[in-house]
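If you are new to this repository, start here. Below is one unmodified record pulled from the training split, so you can see the exact layout before writing a loader.
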Amino acid sequence: MQLGKQLYVNHSTIARWENGTRLPDIAMISRLSTCLGVDANTLFNLAERSDENPNVIMVDDSRVVLSDGLTVLGEVMPNATITGFIWPLEAIKYAKMNQVALAVLDIELGASSGLDLCNTLLEINPRTNIVFLTAYADYSLDAWKTNAIGFILKPLTPEGVKEQLKKLRYPFSTGGADE
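And here is the target side for that same chain:
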């Protein structure tokens, strides 16, 4: 609240900067550096480093598919922080606290829908890249009505992930050999 008062911005703006859903503009970075007593280049370097270790989530209600998928994602993106969720509400809670660069979502999540989860994640952070993962090609038409960047049929493979990473709307460093 004190920083917000010094910068003449409300606390929700500061919260968005903290969770990575919004970034301050150049003029605000200069004001931030003055308020914090830090060189502006330090702030820019922190923002750049966050791209080097992106947060990636996978949500699937099958523990086997989730476990195998996390292994594949880790192989393709060794520098990413990869977290798996069985329950969509846990993924939402995580996304509110962490800037998610990529979300790999099953479409059928028990009583929940990956399509609804997609919309919620994009409300939290419009820069989240969403890829749907499903065993049913019929869902692809519904998936394309969202702002997802891609669609993969199960099982998740390194090749399938690499293909989707080429299509990222908001690219980030994967740390993989193909980069």
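Two things worth knowing about this chain: The CA atoms of residues 134 and 175 lie 26 Å apart. The chain has two domains: 2-50, 53-165.
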